[in-house]
Design goal:
Elements: H1 2-20, H2 33-79, H3 83-96, H4 101-114, H5 117-130, H6 133-166, H7 169-185, H8 192-196, H9 198-236, H10 240-253, H11 256-268
Helix pairs in contact: 2-3, 2-4, 3-4, 4-5, 4-6, 9-10, 9-11, 10-11
C-alpha cells in the first residue's frame, strides 16, 4: 500500500510541475477584472496622444496660410497707395502674431512709404527685442532702398530747378522765337483775311477748347480704368465696402463701357 501511494505521488508531481512552469496554465491563470481594465486603458491612451499632434500641425499651417493671404492683400493696398487700409489689416495681425517678422516688415514698408518715423522706430525696437537678426538686416535694406529712391527724386527735382533759375531773359526770348518758327514749319499759316475773320477766330477757339476737353477726357478715362481694376481687386479680397465705394466713383467719372462694367461688378456683390 505505501509503495503504491508513493508511485501515485511521483506520477502526480511531474503534472504539478508542468502546470507550474506553464505547460497548461490557461485554466489556472485569471487576471483580476480591475487589472484588465487598467491594461485596456493603457492601450487606448497612447493612440489618443498620437492623434493630437496632427491637429497642432494643421492649426499652424492654417495660420501661416492666413498670414500669406493677408500680406498679399496688404501689397495690393500699398501698390495703390491705400496705406490706411493696409495698416488696418496689418496692425491687428501683428498684435496676434507679435514674433512674425514678415508682418512686421510689411508694416515697415508702409511706414517708410508714409514717412512715419515713430512707427518705423517702434518696429525696429520690437525686432531688436525679439532678436531676429535676419529681419533687422532686411529692415536696414528697406531703409537704404527708400533713402536711395528719395535721393534720386531730389536730384531730379534739383536739376529741374537749377535749369529754371539759370534761364536768362535772352534764353527765354530765344525759346519763344524757336517755338514760333516751329509752328510755321509745321504749316500753320494764316493770311491777313483769316486773322481778321471773326468766324475763323471762333473756329480756332473751338478747336483749342475741344483739344483740352479731349485731354481731360483721357485723364478721366485712365483714372476710371485704374479705379475699375482696384474695384476688382477689392472684390477678390472680399472687401465689399471698399469695392462699392471705388466702383461708384467709376460710375460717376468713367466712360459708358467702364460704367457698365462697374455696374456688373456691383451687381455681383450685391
Amino acid at each position: 500500500g505505501a509503495v503504491s501511494r508513493r508511485r501515485n505521488e511521483e506520477t502526480e508531481y511531474p503534472q504539478d510541475l508542468q502546470r507550474a512552469i506553464g505547460g497548461n496554465t490557461q485554466p489556472d491563470v485569471q487576471l483580476p477584472e480591475d487589472l484588465e481594465s487598467e491594461l485596456e486603458d493603457d492601450v487606448t491612451v497612447e493612440p489618443a496622444v498620437q492623434q493630437k499632434q496632427p491637429k497642432q500641425d494643421s492649426a499652424t499651417l492654417q495660420n501661416e496660410a492666413e498670414i500669406r493671404k493677408l500680406v498679399e492683400e496688404a501689397d495690393i493696398y500699398i501698390a495703390y497707395g491705400r496705406y490706411e487700409r493696409a495698416l488696418e489689416m496689418l496692425r491687428p495681425a501683428v498684435n496676434k502674431n507679435p514674433t512674425n517678422a514678415i508682418l512686421r516688415l510689411k508694416l515697415v514698408e508702409v511706414f517708410l512709404a508714409t514717412g512715419d518715423v515713430a512707427g518705423l522706430s517702434q518696429q525696429e525696437a520690437d525686432l531688436q527685442a525679439i532678436g531676429d537678426d535676419e529681419a533687422l538686416s532686411k529692415l536696414e535694406e528697406l531703409k537704404a532702398e527708400t533713402a536711395v529712391a528719395k535721393a534720386d527724386a531730389i536730384d531730379s527735382g534739383g536739376d529741374v530747378e537749377e535749369t529754371e533759375f539759370d534761364l536768362a531773359d535772352d534764353d527765354v526770348d530765344n525759346i519763344e522765337e524757336q517755338e514760333k518758327n516751329t509752328d510755321l514749319e509745321e504749316g500753320i499759316e494764316f493770311t491777313l483775311d483769316d486773322v481778321g475773320s471773326d468766324e475763323n477766330e471762333a473756329d480756332v477757339a473751338d478747336d483749342i477748347a475741344s483739344s483740352v476737353d479731349d485731354l481731360d477726357f483721357l485723364g478721366d478715362t485712365d483714372e476710371a480704368a485704374t479705379k475699375l481694376e482696384l474695384g476688382r481687386a477689392y472684390i477678390d479680397m472680399a472687401d465689399k465696402d471698399a469695392a462699392i465705394e471705388i466702383l461708384n466713383e467709376v460710375i460717376d467719372s468713367g466712360n459708358e463701357e467702364q460704367r457698365d462694367e462697374a455696374k456688373k461688378l456691383l451687381e455681383s456683390i450685391a
